[in-house]
Amino acid sequence: MERSFKNDLAFAKKLDQQDELHKYREAFYLQPGEIYMDGNSLGLASKAAVIELEAMIERWKKEGVRAWNDLYLYGEKLGKMMSPLINALPDEVVVTGSTTSNIHSALATFYQPTNERYKILVDDLNFPTDRYAVDSIVTLKGYQVSDAVKVAKSPDGEFIDEQAMIEAMTEDVALVLLPAVLYRSAQLIDMKRLAKAAHERGIIIGFDLCHAIGAVEIDFQAIQPDFAVWCTYKYLNGGLGSTAGLYINKQHFGHTPGLAGWFGNRNTTQFQLKQTFEHQEDASGWQSGSPAIFSMATLEGSLKIFEEVGMKKIRAVSLEKTAYLMYLIDEKLTHYGYSYGNKREDSVRGGHVCLQHQEAYRIAAALRDLGVIPDFREPNVIRLAPIALYTSYEEIYQVVEVLAKIIQEKNYEKYSAIRSAVV
């Protein structure tokens, strides 16, 4: 898509005046003197999230155990609120667990190896927790990781080769697990193409949406994966460690969950506490233990904003803001040694820009001390996420100015190159 930008502050302010989502900045706790560019790692707190959390605390204070009379269905309620973000059926989505625990649950359910089909196909660029879970499950099934985990390696160390991935879907592959958006290079993969290829070969396929949901439009009615997992604290702004999401395709509702627990029991008999598990045949049947209600309440507040705005508008504004950032990098920063490692085309990139520099770690440290909050990923990437709901075009312009200043004044030289911080 062709866009026409200008390289001056007045133009950035004009873009803010034209941005229909600019008003939502007031819905978030923006800090004075700080430009927050790390929403791809942890989204900012919204006022709606805090209101819902405080309301839930009041319920605990006033109702005690009686609150469970409806909150035992809270994961299903939030799943229904979240389902439009991926265009899934309401009963195909539940809010439960963590990304990693949900991967374990899905793999325990769908990885049913045979003598002929026993391998799990993965890429070598995904966030490592996915690989840890895959290695764990094949070991529990009695296989050697070196034999049962098939890795389709990236040809360049930055992007997944989709055709190579499809060619790796051989007759010995039982299941495929892939990221929807790569956390480092922001590559948005063609989930529909990959799911179609897997299903044509009789292979189960699941996706990790952690760096996609809330930033890009996803259509699971068209894609029809078997399962998907995601966190809710990045673009969905659910808060630190907020409860994750799980999608189970309706065709699999009859499967018995591989990691059953009492919260996945049929709703009508759950509190009869029988010794025999009776599976609730929808996504909520994959819940295990009691839900973390306070870590879900914040998400309810955040999801109300997404219901109001809709993913179509959010994606459109996200693409504009990331494109503007890339334009400014091209115009103002390349002669300082900066580049970006993500693709330019809208159809193949997620919601963040992967700024690259040989001094990336020290530059990231300097940015934080100058009031810009990014994150760093090995070996040379500063991830910058202009969030559709709360990052302004003026802030994007200012961030680029600070990046230039850091090199001009050699501010980064004050910092050690030895990593010592979380971000």
CATH topology of the largest domain: Aspartate Aminotransferase, domain 2
**Helicity, as a percent range:** 25-40%
Name the structural class.
alpha/beta
Give a quick account of the main beta sheet: strands, pairing sense, barrel closure.
7 strands, mixed
Question: Total strand count, please?
Answer: 13
Instruction: Please list the strands of the largest sheet in the order they lie side by side.
Output: 2-8-7-6-5-3-4
Overall, the morphology is globular
CATH class of the largest domain: Alpha Beta
Number of discrete helical segments: 14
Low-confidence stretches: none
Could you name the CATH homologous superfamily of the largest domain? Type I PLP-dependent aspartate aminotransferase-like (Major domain)
Task: Note the run of SSEs as H and E.
Answer: HEHHHEHEHHEHEHEHEEHHEEHEEEH
Head-to-tail CA distance between termini: 33 Å
Integer count of domains: 2
Strand content: 5-15%
Radius of gyration (Å)? 22 Å
Whole-number average pLDDT?
A: 97
The CATH architecture of the largest domain is: 3-Layer(aba) Sandwich
Protein name: Kynureninase
GO biological process, one term: quinolinate biosynthetic process
Cofactor: pyridoxal 5'-phosphate
EC number: 3.7.1.3
